[in-house]
Amino acid sequence: MQLQEFLDGEGSWLRRVARLVSGSWERADAALADTTAHLVRQGTDLTDGPAALRAAWPRLAAWLRSHDDTEPIPHQTPPGSDVTDPTPHLLLALQELPVEQRLALVLHCRARLDDQTLAHCLDLPTAVVPALTAQAVEELQARLVANGEHLRLDLAEVTDRRQWRPARTTVEDVHL
Based on the domain organization, do 94 and 34 belong to the same domain? Predict the structure, then answer.
């Protein structure tokens, strides 16, 4: 029962992210199966959603990396720095989503994971994560204004995990 609840909840969300990264539902299912089996072998408490997600990310990311046959994405090195900042598949895929879906996905990530874990998933420096969320919110605000809709989003409110909790259906409404 614990396993099925995980697959219906956090596992479903992991599957969608894996699909977004890999471009294939088959790979997403295989990645989720491998990750879930790993969590069960490790004795991870699947009823603790955030802890299960934190335990799942490294395994899921490793599976996706090892089964990635897409063209390599060039690394970018910031001027005056020897730190390599790879452009992740997930970030590129996010840029192709409609802004409302991107916002829902990113804010859902922010609500469920701490910055360090999310940065690890995105393969980005931790400091970039708040800016990514802020950018998504600003883009949605601009789009709503352009459409003549008057909806004010308080950036501090929606990006603070203590104040903003998405409904469980937030990502279910994101059609990938």
Answer: no
